[in-house]
Specification:
By secondary structure, the chain is mainly beta. It folds into 3 domains: about 1-340, Porin, CATH 2.40.160; about 350-460, Immunoglobulin-like (Sandwich); about 470-665, Roll (C8orf32 fold), CATH 3.10.620. It is about 15% helix and about 45% strand. The chain has 10 helices and 33 strands. The strands form 5 sheets. Strands 3-4-5-7-8-9-10-11-12-13-14-15-16-18 form a 14-stranded antiparallel β-barrel. Strands 21, 22, 23, 25 and 26 form a 5-stranded antiparallel beta sheet that branches. It has a 5-stranded antiparallel beta sheet with strand order 31-32-30-29-33. The longest helix has 18 residues, at about 635-650. The radius of gyration is 41 Å and the shape is elongated. The termini are far apart.
Length: about 675
C-alpha cells in the first residue's frame, strides 16, 4: 500500500487559538475581581455595576510566533449604566475563536477504492450579553449569556481514473451546532479593601443545529463549573487579585498605579491540564486620561509544546478546551485595547466611606433637624488636589428638596465628617406609625457640577404622636395656631367676658388664663397614656376632641390654649434621681404680675415663682398640676405650687439638675 500526503507531510493538527479578550485581562490573567466595566465583562457580569455611564472598548491582537499574520480585530464591547442599580453590556468578538485542521491523507489500497478526508474544526463565541443589578452598596449580581458556534467542515477526496488519467476530486460537507450558555456571578465588597466574587459557568444550556456524529467527536465540554475570585486593595494605587475554578485553572495578578495615569500589571496562570501546571505569565501596561484609556498586554506560555500552532493529532482533545479564553493550545498573544467613557465622565473627587444616623425623626420636632444634624457622612478626598466638599441629604416625599451642608476643606487622601441636616415638609406629620425610609446622601466637590458620589441610608421615621422623652422637644407638640385651639380659647373668653369687667389691669392676664383653664378643666379626665408607653403624646386637637389624656397630653394642651391668647408658658420636667419611672411634667404660666405686686395675687409666696420670661422681664409665674385639673383651677394651682416647692426648694432639683424648666414660647 502506498501513502500519498496531500497538503502536508505531517500527521498533525494546525491550530489557531484565541487568548483573553482584552489587553488588561491579558496582563492580569483575567481575574474575576478585575472586571469593573465592559472589558472582559463576560468573565464577571456582576462587575458591570461599577461603570459610570456609557462605556466602550475595542481590542486587537497579534501572535508574535505567527509571521504570516499581523494585528487582527479581536472585538468590540458596549455597555450602559441603566440606573443607579443596573447596568448592561453587549460584546461582539469575531476574534474569539479556536480552529484547527486535520490534514488530508490519501490511501490507495489493493481494492483500488481510494478514500481520504481532511477536517476543519472551528469554535467561536462571537456574541456575549450581560446585565447586572446592585442590591446594596456592598452586593451585586450579574447574568451573562454567551453564544457559541461549533462547526466541522468535512472534505473527502477521490481519485478519478479516466482514459488512463488519474486526478483527484473533492466534496465538502459542513455541520454546525449552536449553543447558548448562561453564567451567573455574585460580587460582595465588605470594605474598600476587599472584594469577593463567585461565578457559575454554564448554569443554563440550550443547543440547536445539526446532530451529526462528527460533531459529537469534537464537541466542547459544557458542564457546569464554579470560579471564585478575590481582590485586595491595600491602598488606592495597588490591587492584588487571585482566582481559581473547579475546572482546574487559576491565576494570581497585581496592578500598580504609580501616577500620571500609568498602570503596570503582571500575572501568572496555572492549568492542571498542562505540563508544567504553572503554564503562563502575563504582563501589561495602561495609561488613562479623563474618559480615555489604552492598554497593552502580553501573555507568554512557559512551555512551547502545543502552543506553537502545530500539535500532533494524538495530543489533541476537545475535552481540554474548557474555556475559549485560555486552554492548553493557546498561542502567545500581544493585545491592544482602547476604552472610552461617555456621558457622566468626570472623575470623582470625593468618595463616601460611611454614613452614621444619630437617631430617628420625631414628626412633632422635625424642625430641629434644620440646624441640628440628623447624621454625619464620612467623606474621603480621592483626588490629588485639596477640595471643598459639600454633602446633601434627601428623603423622597418627606422633603421638598435636598438640604446641603457648608463646604468642608479636605486635603488629598484626607477624610472629613460632614454633618447632615434636613428640612422636612408637612408630610412628615402624616406618618402615623413607625416607618423606615430611604435617605439619599450626595457628596460633591468643587469644581464639580454633579455629585461625585451617592449613597443610601435608612432613616427611621416615628409616628406623628411619638416623642423622644426630651422636654426640649415636647414644645413642638404645642400648636397655638390650630383653628380648633384658637376657637376654643376665644369662645371661652367670650362666654366669661362679664368676669373680666372690673378686674385690675395687672391681674387681667392671670384672670384670662384662669378662665380658659377653668372652662376646659371640668370636661377633662386624666387617663394613663393611650398607648401604655412614655413616648406617646397627643396633639392639643386630639386632647380637645377626646377630652382626656395623661400629664404630657394635658400639659401640652393647656400650654397651647394659653399661648393662643398670648400668655407665655413653660414646662417643668421632673426626673427624680434613681426613679426614672416617677418622671413627671407639669405647667408654669406667666401671670404678667410684677413681683412688687405679689400680694395682689397671693399672700403665700410659695404659691408662685419669680422668674424671668422670654422677654427678659421678671414676673410671677404660677405652677399648674395638670393631672388634677378636673378638680378645678384652684386645686391644680395648689397641687402645682406644692410640687414645685417640694422638688425645687426642698429637693434642690434645679441645682442638682433633675428638675428642668423649659420655656415653650
Amino acid at each position: 500500500m502506498c501513502i500519498l500526503l496531500i497538503g502536508t507531510c505531517m500527521m498533525g493538527s494546525s491550530l489557531k487559538a484565541q487568548a483573553l479578550v482584552d489587553a488588561r485581562s491579558l496582563g492580569l490573567g483575567g481575574s474575576l475581581g478585575a472586571v469593573r466595566d465592559t472589558r472582559d465583562f463576560a468573565a464577571n457580569p456582576a462587575g458591570l455595576v461599577h461603570m459610570r455611564d456609557w462605556d466602550m472598548s475595542v481590542s486587537t491582537y497579534a501572535e508574535p510566533s505567527n509571521s504570516k499574520s499581523g494585528f487582527v480585530f479581536q472585538g468590540l464591547a458596549l455597555g450602559k449604566r441603566l440606573s443607579e442599580q443596573q447596568a448592561a453590556a453587549l460584546r461582539y468578538t469575531p476574534g474569539s475563536s479556536v480552529s484547527f485542521v486535520i490534514p488530508p491523507v490519501l490511501l490507495l489500497g489493493e481494492s483500488n477504492l481510494p478514500e481520504s478526508a481532511d477536517r476543519e474544526i472551528e469554535y467561536q463565541e462571537p456574541f456575549a450579553f450581560g446585565i447586572a443589578h446592585k442590591f446594596a452598596d456592598e452586593f451585586s449580581a450579574g447574568i451573562g449569556i454567551r453564544y457559541r458556534r461549533e462547526r466541522v467542515a468535512d472534505t473527502r477526496y477521490q481519485i478519478i481514473v479516466r482514459d488512463t488519467i488519474s486526478y483527484p476530486t473533492a466534496t465538502q460537507e459542513t455541520f454546525t451546532r449552536n449553543a447558548w450558555l448562561a453564567d451567573a456571578a455574585l460580587q460582595w465588597q465588605p470594605s474598600d479593601q476587599w472584594s469577593l466574587t463567585i461565578a457559575g459557568r454554564n448554569v443554563l444550556r440550550m443547543f440547536s443545529g445539526d446532530a451529526a456524529d462528527v460533531l459529537e467527536t469534537y464537541r466542547l465540554p459544557s458542564s457546569t463549573f464554579l470560579e471564585g475570585g478575590v481582590r485586595y486593595t491595600p491602598d488606592g494605587n495597588i490591587h492584588i487579585l487571585a482566582s481559581a475554578s473547579s475546572a482546574g485553572m487559576g491565576t494570581v495578578g497585581a496592578e500598580w498605579s504609580p501616577g500620571l495615569g500609568l498602570t503596570v500589571r503582571g500575572s501568572v496562570m496555572g492549568n492542571k491540564a498542562e505540563r508544567p501546571m504553572l503554564c503562563a505569565a502575563g504582563m501589561g501596561i495602561g495609561w488613562s486620561y479623563e474618559f480615555f484609556e489604552v492598554d497593552a498586554g502580553y501573555l507568554h506560555y512557559l512551555s512551547a509544546e502545543n502552543h506553537r500552532g502545530n500539535t500532533p493529532i494524538t495530543d489533541f482533545s476537545a475535552d481540554d478546551i474548557i474555556n475559549l479564553d485560555q486552554h492548553p493550545f493557546s498561542r502567545n498573544r500581544l493585545a491592544l485595547t482602547a476604552k472610552a467613557i461617555f456621558g457622566h465622565v468626570r472623575a470623582s473627587l470625593a468618595r463616601i466611606e460611611g454614613i452614621t444616623m444619630s437617631g430617628g425623626v420625631y414628626p412633632a420636632s422635625h424642625e430641629v433637624f434644620a440646624y441640628k444634624p440628623i447624621g454625619t457622612v464620612r467623606v474621603r478626598n480621592v483626588s490629588s488636589q485639596p477640595i471643598h466638599a459639600k454633602a446633601s441629604f434627601f428623603v423622597d416625599r418627606l422633603m421638598d428638596a435636598p438640604t446641603e451642608s457648608a463646604a468642608v476643606y479636605i486635603l488629598p487622601d484626607g477624610v472629613a465628617e460632614i454633618p447632615l441636616t434636613a428640612v422636612f415638609n408637612e408630610q412628615v406629620k402624616r406618618v402615623s406609625t413607625l416607618t423606615v425610609k430611604d435617605g439619599n446622601v450626595f457628596v460633591n466637590a468643587t469644581p464639580a457640577e454633579q455629585y461625585d458620589d451617592k449613597a443610601q441610608t435608612r432613616v427611621l421615621i416615628h409616628g406623628k404622636n411619638a416623642w423622644d422623652g426630651d422636654v426640649n422637644t415636647l414644645r413642638y407638640f404645642v400648636t397655638p395656631d390650630e383653628p380648633l385651639v384658637l376657637k376654643y380659647s376665644r369662645d371661652a373668653l367670650l362666654e366669661q367676658r362679664d368676669s373680666l369687667e372690673g378686674i385690675p389691669g395687672m391681674l387681667e392676664q392671670f384672670t384670662r388664663a384662669r378662665l380658659v383653664i377653668s372652662s376646659f378643666a371640668g370636661r377633662l379626665q386624666y387617663v394613663s397614656d393611650p398607648r401604655l408607653t412614655a413616648d406617646f403624646v397627643q396633639y392639643p386637637v386630639e386632647t380637645l376632641n377626646v377630652q382626656g389624656g395623661d400629664c404630657d397630653d394635658m400639659t401640652v394642651c393647656f400650654a397651647s390654649l394659653l399661648s393662643s391668647i398670648g400668655i407665655a408658658t413653660a414646662f417643668v420636667d421632673v426626673i427624680p434621681p434613681g426613679k426614672p419611672d416617677q418622671a413627671h411634667i407639669y405647667l408654669l404660666f406667666d401671670t404678667g404680675v410684677e413681683p412688687r405686686f405679689a400680694s395682689a395675687l397671693a399672700e403665700n409666696p410659695k404659691r408662685f415663682v419669680v422668674r424671668r420670661g422670654p422677654r427678659g422681664k421678671e414676673t410671677l409665674w404660677i405652677p399648674i398640676e395638670t393631672t388634677v385639673i378636673a378638680r378645678g383651677f384652684d386645686e391644680a394651682w395648689t397641687g402645682g405650687a406644692q410640687r414645685y416647692f417640694d422638688d425645687v426648694e426642698i429637693g434642690l432639683g434645679l441645682a442638682h439638675g433633675w428638675v428642668r424648666v423649659v420655656d415653650v414660647n
